[in-house]
Amino acid sequence: MKPCLVPLWLALAAGTVLSATPAVTPADLSALSARAEKELRGNILPFWLKNARDRDRGGFRGAIDQQMNIQKDSPRGALLTSRILWTFSAAYRRYHDPEYLEMARWAYRDQMENFRDREHGGLFWSITPDGKPLDAHKQIYGQVFGLYALSEYYRATGEPPALAEAIAIYRLVDQHAHDARDRGYFDTLTREWQPQKNTGQTLLGPGEAPKSQNSHIHIMEAFTSLLRVWPDAGLRARERELIELMLTRIVDERTHHLVLFMKADWTPIGEEFSYGHDIELSWLLVEAADVLGDPALIARVRPVALAIARTTAAEGVDTDGGIVNEGNARGWTNTNKDWWPQAEAAVGFLNAYQLSGDPKFFAATVRTWNFIDAKFVDRLHGDWYESLKRDGTPLPRMKLSVWKCPYHNSRSCLELIERLERLGAALPNYPLSGSVTQSPADQAKLGEVLKANFEKLEKTGVVKIIPPAKQFLDEAVASGDRGQILRAFQDAIYARHWKINVVIPVVKMFLNDPNPYVRYNAANDLFIVGETDGYATLLALVEASNRIEGIENDV
Questions:
Q1: 299-347: per-residue pLDDT in tens?
Q2: Cα(525)–Cα(531) distance, rounded to whole angstroms?
Q3: Rounded CA gap, 159 and 150, in Å?
Q4: Phi, psi (deg, nearest 5) at residue 320
Q5: pLDDT by 10-residue block (mean), the chain, 555 residues
Q6: How far apart are alpha carbons 223 and 145 in whole angstroms?
Q7: DSSP string computed for 431-459
Q8: DSSP code at position 23
């Protein structure tokens, strides 16, 4: 029978501990990491090494169908070349396999020799099979993927011309596509980097939508990558602007979905949700803020990322564990399951676990990976199917095309491996796990105080505005872990619709928790929002940090 979720204050006052998702163990982490690495090096990368290159004409194939038939007359896209360049650069940076470096250099030469617009700068969108410009307009989505790939290639090889080209593309995009009045970037320009007239439909969406979340996600992603190797002040300012736009214009704070398309002034167009883009942004947003390195911005971003992950888990996951493509406020509108949302969900849910310590997110990661392994891995030809029907039947799509590439699934594997390694190193001292059990008297006292504060929260109407906040509180109670309960209120501190003066007293109660990790997290959050009550606790932890493993570096 499904356990009943009771109010936070009542469960604590009664000392109730309900069944919850099992704690994550080092064995769990290493097992998933091994699965991701096996998939990456045993399936995905070998498929692209074997099948993608056109050894007769140079560059890469334009298209290969699901039966592995090569379509020799298909145009070739810069997007595919850029994504192959990123994939094998990242793989080489981790594994130092010369075969990966050879593939990365093949892609780098293809991009520089065949797709670079020597007259106007930037990259062509597509070329003919024999290498002549076909679609020469400047799709900003395509430009920033070139930038992203070049930055990663430079990280892997240290070759200065790659960095110089990445910087050149950044400057062209910022000079010509940036909206000086309303901020952000326009999606589409002419070959000469002039405004593109409304053609009724663009590569990414309706012609009346000059801006899109899709472009902005990947502009931010590319700028994050470039910042790692070129910490330019102007680039930092643009990255900050993009993060602010994500928080204020692109993420709908009422629903925790992304607005897909916008007018120049950010007026939303349409009502569809893309669950894959939602969960992809959730982790890319945290990555961008972390690379920028502003603690206040990081504090704002993390609860947003968690809210998006919770919403995706609640609304976008089918009963088989797969992520459906699209929906709206009335339900699902496209129940097919493309390969890339699954890859992004695996990373997005693991990122949420890293931020929250909630084992339910780790369980969601494993469930997503199980679905990928059972349904998406093509055990006949290699790599993954592009898309499935809702029942898991592969659709007749491509194995290789302008859009079907190794970027999403390879990156998912690499992110999982690296994140799981970091978690494995930190797990024995993970900050809020394993809280000390309180005496019945202390627990009853806490319950009374929480009851009063929880009633105040109810009166604000917040639980009606953002249901995931209420859900997280209930789940925290079900976990029986005071660390999880604190996390629920940590989210509350930074969420716009919560009343900070109502939540802060609750967090202050954790300053005397028997668990030093709980005390540290409570004190740190209070300090960030300007509450000095946690300062003495932080000082005490500094003095004791040499005796408390896992805190000293943070302090």
A1: 899 999 999 999 999 999 999 999 999 999 999 999 999 999 999 999 9
A2: 9
A3: 10
A4: -90, 0
A5: 37 38 86 96 98 96 97 97 98 95 98 98 97 96 98 95 97 98 97 86 82 97 96 96 98 96 96 97 96 89 95 96 97 97 98 91 97 98 98 97 97 96 58 40 52 55 43 60 61 48 69 70 67 68 52 47
A6: 10
A7: TTSSPPPPPHHHHHHHHHHHHHHHHHHHH
A8: P
Task: Say what the pLDDT of residue 19 is.
Answer: 36
Core vs surface per residue 493-527: b (16+ CB within 10 A) or e: bbbeebeeebbbebbbbbbebebbbbbbbbbbbbe
Per-residue model confidence (pLDDT) at position 458:
56
Distance CA 125, CA 489 (A): 47
Q: For the chain, what's the residue count?
A: 555
Residue 69's Cα: distance from chain center in Å? 34
Environment class of 112 (CB within 10 Å of its CB; exposed 0-12, middle 13-18, buried 19+):
middle
What are 192's two structure tokens?
């000469």
Residue-wise over 27-63: b if at least 16 C-beta within 10 A, else e?
ebbeebbebbbebbbebbbebbbebbbeeeeebbbbb
Q: Which ranges of 316-439 would DSSP assign to H, the alpha helix?
A: 339-356, 359-371, 407-426
DSSP 464-509: HH-HHHHHHHHHHHHHT-HHHHHHHHHHHHH-TTS-HHHHHHHHHG
Q: Which two tokens stand for residue 31?
A: 């097992």
Amino acid at 392: G
Measured CA to CA, the distance from residue 427 to residue 108 in angstroms comes to 39
Neighbour order of strands in the sheet with 331-334 = 273-274, 326-328, 331-334
Q: In this structure, what DSSP letter does residue 178 have?
A: B
- Calpha distance 48→405 (Å, rounded): 9
Domains, the chain, with CATH or none: 77-270 (1.50.10.10), 431-547 (no CATH)
Bridge partner list, 398: 65
Cβ(151)–Cβ(228) below 8 Å: yes
Q: Which residues of 326-361 are buried (b: 16+ CB within 10 A; e: fewer)?
A: bbeeeebeebebbbbbbbbbbbbbbbbbbbbbbbbb
pTM: 0.77
SS3 state at 271:
coil
Give the helix/strand (H/E) hosting 327.
Answer: strand 326-328
